[in-house]
Amino acid sequence: MTPLLQASDLEVRFDTPKGILHALDGVSIEVARGETVGLVGESGSGKSTLAMTLMRAIDPDGGRILFDGQDITHLKPKALKPVRRRLQMIFQDPYASLDPRMTVRRIIAEPLKAHKTGSRAEIEARVAALIDAVGLPPDAAERLPAQFSGGQRQRIAIARAIALEPNLVIADEPVSALDVSIQAQIVNLLRDIQERLGIAYLVVAHDLALVHQIANRIVVMYLGRVVEEASADDLIDAPQHPYTVALLSAQPTTDQDGRSRLVLKGDPPSPIDRPPGCPFHPRCPIARARCAAETPPLTGVSDGRRVACFYPGELAVPWDQPVQEQRREIAQ
Asked: Does residue 322 have a pLDDT over 60?
């Protein structure tokens, strides 16, 4: 079956006073109908840039974007408008993504009016149904965003995003600004909406544990590239790329058995001045001479799994011995 969203070899570059910043460097990603794909990585890995590029809020410098079989890579705004009805976004900050001067009724009705979806009475009824669907009280319609908590504001943003019953919603860090208890409520709400409407999600986040709760597949990015992709369970149970191992090791845990953690040294290299070879090799605990000289391609290593590493799976999980011991064993 043809993927709902298919991006191939996306390139995004920004001119800066210090040089060309390579935000995306040959990124390919797919989302099937009704599927949830998680997109994870450190700050600066290119996750949000990819989300905005897929939305066509940023024009790519190379590559191709297909939505439901249609090439939308270079569509002009007028031709792009019907696509936007089926491709919506939830933004990271519920405090900044809602117009503070508009009532909830006007915020949710805005996309319905922009796409001329019905009469005034039909739009009013639709807004009321959406307010109920996201768990807000009926009197929320006449109130302003400032009168709501962060979790309630994100519910308003979700109602706006699903108002047109899109095929795909891209959610950029949809719960990172919320308390942990509220995060769980929003994740459950997104699941319920998906079950009712069959919407596909691309969820951008830095929290692998949270993404694992909601995603069918997880894509890991580092320095503008995809370094690993697998089903959510496979990636959590047996990460193959050393960077994915490090991300999992960094997750908070109640486990007190004294296992060592994989702590990466240094910060990610600058996307303006990339290192030669594998972009992760300056921080990788199992890097070898080849890693500094050659760039590993994103290669299929098993059914549905791709890894950009010359030595996938060599870093032990669950980090039950010091990294130095692992390095010595691998070298022998």
From this structure: no
Long-range contacts of range 82-85, CB-CB < 8 Å, 24 or more positions apart? 83/56, 85/111, 85/115, 85/164, 85/166
Count Cβ atoms below 10 Å from residue 101 Cβ, excluding itself.
Answer: 9
Same domain for 169 and 310? Answer: no
CB 37 within 8 A of CB 201: yes
Instruction: Read off the DSSP letter of residue 147.
Output: G
**pLDDT tens, position by position, 261-308:** 677 777 788 889 888 999 999 999 899 999 999 999 999 888 789 999
Q: Is 127 left (phi over 0), alpha (psi -120 to 50) or beta?
A: alpha
Could you give the percent of the chain with pLDDT greater than 90? 68
Rounded Cα–Cα distance for residues 105 and 324 (Å): 58
Inter-residue contact 5 to 54 (CB < 8 Å): yes
How big is the chain by its Cα radius of gyration, in Å?
21
Distances from the Cα of 40 to the Cαs of 134, 217, 297, in angstroms?
26, 11, 19
Q: Taking the C-alpha atoms of 229, 230, 236 and 237 in order, what is their torsion angle to the nearest 10 degrees?
A: -130
Residue 79 belongs to domain with CATH number:
3.40.50.300
Residue 257 structural domain: 239-331
Evaluate whether 94 touches 154 at the Cβ level (below 8 Å).
yes
**Same domain, yes or no: 214 and 80:** yes
- 171 and 212: one domain? yes
Same domain, residue pair 293 and 175? no
Identify the helix (H) or strand (E) that includes residue 326: helix 323-331
Q: Which residues pair with 158 in a beta bridge?
A: none
Residue 185: how many CB atoms within 10 A of its CB?
Answer: 16
